[in-house]
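Supplementary Methods, section 5.1.

A reviewer requested that the exact input to the structure prediction be made available. We therefore reproduce it here, unchanged from the version used in the analyses.
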Amino acid sequence: MKTVLFSVAALVALGLVVYAAMAVMSQKMPDNLGLKDGQLTPCPESPNCVCSESHTANDAEHYIQAIQGNKTTWDKLKKVIKAQGGTIESDNGLYMHATFRSAVFQYVDDVELRLDEASNTIHIRSASRMGRKDFGVNRKRVEAIKKAL
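The structure derived from this sequence is encoded token-by-token as follows.
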């Protein structure tokens, strides 16, 4: 019985160490942020990302509807992101990068926005830096941002 309890305790401890290590690794800024050929970066194959750009339109797992809006909407988005716990890392008026941190392990997720002034559309991408699954967190975050507008 002591061996079983020790084994369970060791597995729990190992799991916590792995989660803590992933949290530390998620602090490093990814090199796939920003615009590529004038659009937000496509999502990876993993299900921890959503994006509204056209390259994702035929991918139900990753696609999310863009936001209709202009510079006024852009300014409101900054306030909404901050109100929901995000930090604006950069904003040049046409591209914005914000980060969100999870409560327990402080995992970092990146939210990127691109204003297309010609079509009054704001494209959005939200992705986890670490892990494979996000249990729908990024999709829920984008929907919450849209709803708060």
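Strands lie at 35-36, 39-40, 49-51, 67-68, 87-91, 95-101, 108-116, 121-128. These observations are discussed further in the main text.
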